[in-house]
Amino acid sequence: MTSAVVPDHPWLLPGSLVPARAPRRTPRDWFVDSVLFVASLLWVLITHADVTSVTPEFGLNAGPAWLEEVDLLIGLLVSGALWLRRRWPVGLAVATAPLVFFSVTSGVALLVITFTVLVHRPLPLGLALVGWNLLSLPVYLAVRPDPTMPFWAAVVWTALLIGVVVAWALFVRARRQLVLSLRDRAERAEAEQQLRLDQARQLERGRIAREMHDVLAHRISLLSLHAGALEFRPDAPPEEVARAAGVIRASAHAALQDLREVIGVLRAEVGSEATPERPQPTLGDVPALVAESRDAGVRVGVVDEVTEPEAVPAGIGRSAYRIVQEGLTNARKHAPGAVVTVRLAGGPGDGLAVDIHNPWPVGAPATAIPGAGTGLVGIAERVTLAGGRLEHGRDADGGFRLTAWLPWAAR
């Protein structure tokens, strides 16, 4: 019968076993129940034949003649009732409680019922049943005196037999509790492992989403800027129109390529080998990023005061690249036509400082590029994880400034 450990219950001691439900018997259960039924039935027949004989062969307790036929019927009924012990052990114990005062033939069945209650039900109930059996011994031996040994010797012998059954039941109970505890611990460890995998998967997806925001926002803002220029200057020279169209085509192709790669990663099944990621940008890619913005018509000034740019750690360089990318994207969105100043400074031991400044826009741009407003949140998280600082907002000169400091350990 399936049991479960319930540690917090007003009627249960810590670690008590209670039935979770009444499942169907397994082949092992059928075998055990059949053996116990046959053993109890044999005991009924042997004891009835012995107590009704003139000279008892096994020293079993004799009693009044009229009681033997009744006891035979009782022993047969209780033996048959053992098939119900898995479903109603406590009810069966209560129903058979009076039999401990006089029945010889039901002895094995009563021990089996006591064993079942001790193993499968709250421990106080099992101990109360054992106490009832021990207290009934004097009455039982008065009704069924043992012809082969003194009264107190028979009490001690019977108490020892009950003690052996109790010890065996407590051992089985402890073993089952250990098995249930180990099983519960294994299931919990498996669930925690699955939770860690899910969390790692979500974190990775969040990282990919932030990367996509940084990349696509930059490229789509370039698309919007050039498309707006073509819209408001339909009479532009063919060379300028062709150059703008080329930038739009290249940006759209790059954006689609980035989007296709990320969607492929997100659709990849768990356990499949992921496609190797493209090399991540570093501080050395900032000039190409600035050149791309200049080609789009953004006026960008760069001040590079990094003492050892080739020694910048890859993680710090990638974060600096994303900060510059976000600053240029925001300038194109919210301050089109403004002059953007990018300043990089620092060295080993001093950290890497990134400063992006542009004048505050006057009025709303005619073709405002929509934004989700999460770019600076992602940059702030990136800088915080790197152990740096980030500030952004309107400065004393009335412009917008994005300033970050990233730690750069000395060599």
From TrEMBL:
Its EC number is 2.7.13.3. It is an enzyme of class 2 (transferase). Keywords: ATP-binding, Kinase, Membrane, Nucleotide-binding, Phosphoprotein, Transferase, Transmembrane, Transmembrane helix, Two-component regulatory system. It comes from the Bacteria. InterPro entries: HATPase_C_sf (IPR036890), Sensor_HK_TwoCompSys (IPR050482), Sig_transdc_His_kin_sub3_dim/P (IPR011712). It catalyses: ATP + protein L-histidine = ADP + protein N-phospho-L-histidine. Gene3D superfamilies: 1.20.5.1930, Histidine kinase-like ATPase, C-terminal domain. The chain crosses the membrane at residues 30-46, 66-84, 91-119, 125-143, 150-171. One of its GO terms (molecular function) is kinase activity. Residues 204-269 form the Signal transduction histidine kinase subgroup 3 dimerisation and phosphoacceptor domain. PANTHER family: NITRATE/NITRITE SENSOR PROTEIN NARX-RELATED, NITRATE_NITRITE SENSOR PROTEIN NARQ. This is histidine kinase. It comes from Micromonospora tulbaghiae.
